[in-house]
Design a protein that fits this description.
Layout: H1 12-27, E1 40-45, H2 51-62, E2 66-70, H3 84-91, E3 97-102, H4 107-114, E4 119-124, H5 130-144, E5 150-155, H6 162-171, E6 177-182, H7 191-199, E7 205-208, H8 211-214, E8 220-223, H9 234-240, H10 248-251, E9 259-261, H11 282-300
Parallel strand pairs: 1-2, 1-3, 3-4, 5-6, 5-8, 6-7, 8-9
């Protein structure tokens, strides 16, 4: 039995197999319509979510399975003081696989140590978001045709942005990937990412403050929102929340084939006027997320479809 806590839990070869399977699901959805008949996924979401929770649920339903779970800590026995360890022991009696989102870093890992079913980390605090990373990788590979030889700009909240941390960890394993880290001083990437991921892998990167200075060289621009829920006070959030706004004027500086990604939800960091630009791929990203999670469920449940 395997769990998914981090993109590094899969080798590059295993990641490629998951992405290949996701691509086949996209091309042949009917082939997989009953692959998980009789199987159940539990979505254990201690934090609010739209895309990730519904994407997991849609993925299992598309595979012929069924769904149970909760959408907030208040609607679970966590409100009564039940531990994550006890919750997963109970859920293991009901479901075949679980996806967990939790505000505390490491909570899904704790659950995996006590679980009798595969556990997928659906986001733990500011730490990791591996299924969003798999979604990002599929989007990049599908639209650019490769995961190597790219220059990617990561813009916005790089300090608390778990999607950014996971994506960096995944992409450093591919050759000739250059990172441009675009953030205000207060929201720069944590030292452990800079030193333990980029530094140890001798990865080429540079840090800039102005988006306009970086955008002309990028093959991909990964925008992120400033996350209100990660700030300790309202004043700091208000000061940071509109630091970057991608609009038509900034897009005019970019390459004709640059792709704009965003894990969503967005607030003000991408103007709606960009939505009609053919380089805006963030809603395509959402659809790819369903295929990736279908592939991941099949992989962790060891279901083979001929």
């Amino acid at each position: 039995m395997r769990h998914l806590m981090s993109p590094l839990d899969f080798t590059v070869e295993e990641l490629d197999k998951v992405l290949d399977l996701a691509a086949d699901i996209e091309a042949n959805p009917k082939k997989y319509a009953h692959a998980c008949d009789g199987k159940k996924i539990a979505t254990l979401f201690y934090e609010p979510s739209t895309r990730t929770r519904l994407s997991f649920e849609a993925a299992m339903l598309n595979l012929g399975g069924s769904v149970l779970g909760f959408s907030s800590a208040d609607s679970s026995s966590a409100a009564k003081g039940e531990s994550v360890s006890d919750t997963i022991r109970v859920i293991s009696c009901y479901a075949d696989i679980a996806a967990m989102r939790h505000p505390k870093e490491g909570a899904p890992l704790v659950a995996s140590l006590k679980s009798r079913i595969p556990v997928i980390n659906a986001g733990d605090g500011g730490h990791q978001h591996p299924t969003q990373t798999l979604t990002d990788l599929m989007t990049i590979r599908s639209l650019k045709g490769r995961l190597d030889n790219i220059t990617i700009g990561l813009c916005g909240d790089l300090k608390f942005g778990r999607t950014v941390h996971s994506l960096i960890e995944a992409l450093v394993r591919y050759p000739n990937v250059k990172f441009v880290l675009i953030s205000p001083e207060e929201l720069r990437i944590p030292d452990y990412v800079r030193e333990d991921v980029l530094g140890k892998n001798h990865q080429e990167f540079r840090e800039v403050t102005r988006l306009e200075d970086a955008i002309p060289e990028l093959d991909l621009l990964y925008m992120t929102r400033v996350q209100k829920e990660r700030f300790f006070n309202e004043e700091d959030y208000v000061r940071m929340k509109d630091f970057y706004i991608l609009d038509k004027q900034k897009m005019s500086l970019a390459k004709p084939d640059m792709i704009v990604l965003h894990p969503l939800p967005r607030v003000n960091e991408i103007s709606t006027e960009v939505d009609d630009d053919p380089r805006a791929a963030y809603f395509k990203q959402v659809q790819y997320g369903v295929y990736v999670r279908m592939a991941l469920i099949l992989t962790l449940l060891e279901v083979e479809v001929c």
